[in-house]
Amino acid sequence: MVLSEEAPAGESCMVRNEWVCPEYVSSRAELITEDLLQHVWITVVSVVLGLVVALALALLVRRYPKLEDGVVGTTTAIYTVPSLALFALLLPFTGLSATTVIIGLVLYSLTILVRNILAGLDGVPADVVEAARGMGYGERRLLWTVELPLALPSVMAGLRVATVSTVALTTVGAIVSAGGLGNLLLTAVNTQFKPQVFTAAVLCVLLAFTFDLVLVGAQRLMTPWTRTRGA
Question: Measured between alpha carbons, how far is 127 from 41 in angstroms, rounded to an integer?
C-alpha cells in the first residue's frame, strides 16, 4: 500500500512517508540491525573466500604461466554476467539461501583480486628476489616473507575495490531473501515506503565507507615501510 504524501502535519513522519524519519529507525531498530548484520556477514565471508580462491589461482598462474590468459579471461567473463542472472543460475544447486549469494559474490570478486595479486607479485623488484635467494630462501619462504609482503599495497588496493563492490552487490541477494539491507530496499520499493528506502541506502553507503576505512588502516599497519618511504 502506498502511504499518502498529503497526511496532516500532526501525523508522524512514517504516516507522512518522509524520506528522513527517526521514528522509523527507532521503531524498526531490531529489523534494521538484523539485516545490517546479515549484510556484514555475507560481505565478510564472500570477500575472505574470494581472497583465498584468488590467491590460490594467482599462485597457480605463477607456477604455470601458460594458464594466465585462461584464468584471467574466465574471471573477467564471469564478471560480465548480470548478478540477477548469475544468482538465478545458481538457484537449482544452492536454493534460496545465503549460499547462493556468497558463491556469486566470490565469483565476482575474483576478477579484481586475481589481477591485483598478480600485478603485486609481478611488481616485486627482481634484485630483491635474487638477494633473498642468495641468502638461502626457498620458494615458499620467499613467497610468504618477501614477495607477498611487498605485493601487499597492490593486493590491498584490489581488496578495497572488491569489498566496496561486494557491499553493493549483496543487496541484489534480496531476490533470494538473503540480501541484508537489500531486503529492506526490495520491500520498501515495492510499497514506495520512503523512510525504509532512505535508511537502507544510507546504511549501505556508511557500511562501504566503514569497510574501506578499516582496510586502509589494516594496510597501514601491515606495510609500515610505505609510511616511512612517504615521509
Answer: 42
